Automatic annotation (TrEMBL):
Its cofactor is Fe(2+). It comes from Methylophilus flavus. SUPFAM superfamilies: Clavaminate synthase-like. Its EC number is 1.14.11.33. This is DNA oxidative demethylase AlkB.
Length: 211
């Protein structure tokens, strides 16, 4: 028997500068989930428009910079869509978790100012794209999954680079930065399923330093 594959790894390298941290968020999940539920009732996720059309995911944000789209483009915004109001601060449990995950991945100086919340109902997906609207590419991306499983695609520097398929579960974190900071990534169509805590949805938090 292969003893290594029989173990549950807590760190899986994906590329230079990128790793998958299975179950990293589970120890703080109770606090995290109750705070996130409160946030989602106060700031209900909305389907955003992009130049490519209406997104299948619904989004909300925390932090100094939220993410908003419309038919002309998308950008970080200090205010909620259609309002002159800021987003609430990134909740402390989320901020601490993101900083700890970044440290584990080799980025000890990560201080995110943006937390995008993507809600995937079964059938939702996100096409291959690069995260490239941030100002400082020395800062990594920290991505946390909750709820039903999803297949995360992690490719390379070119859109045509064949992505690896990562079966993300509730509580998993993926971090990418350094040499893989602008690598293409996406999410396959989420399959119908029910998670005992989160229900019939996948929620992803993307923590970034936007400015
Ligand atoms: O949902 C995910 O796992 C990825 C989200 C993402 O790539 C993004 O928000 O830019
Ligand atoms: Fe992304």
């Amino acid at each position: 028997m292969d003893l290594f594959s029989a173990q549950h790894p807590d760190f899986v390298s994906l590329a230079e500068g990128a790793c998958w941290l299975p179950g990293f968020a589970l120890p703080v999940m109770d606090t995290l989930w109750s705070g996130l539920q409160q946030h989602l009732s106060a700031y209900p996720p909305q389907q955003m428009m992009t130049p490519m059309g209406l997104m299948s995911v619904r989004t909300s944000s925390m932090g100094s910079w939220g993410w908003v789209g419309n038919s002309r483009g998308y950008a970080y915004s200090a205010t909620q869509p259609g309002k002159h109001l800021p987003w609430p601060a990134i909740q402390p449990v989320i901020l601490k978790l993101a900083e700890e995950a970044a440290r584990r991945a080799g980025y000890p100086d990560f201080v995110p100012d943006s937390c995008l919340i993507n809600v995937y109902a079964p059938g939702s997906k996100m096409g291959l794209h690069q995260d490239k609207d941030e100002m400082d590419f020395t800062q990594p991306i920290v991505s946390l999954s909750l709820g039903i499983p999803a297949t995360f695609l992690f490719g390379g520097a070119k859109r045509t680079d064949k992505p690896v398929k990562i079966p993300l579960q509730h509580g998993d974190v993926v971090v990418w930065g350094g040499a893989s900071r602008r690598f293409y990534h996406g999410v396959l169509q989420v399959k119908t399923n029910i998670h005992p805590l989160v229900g019939a949805q996948r929620i992803n938090l993307t923590l970034r330093k936007a400015r």
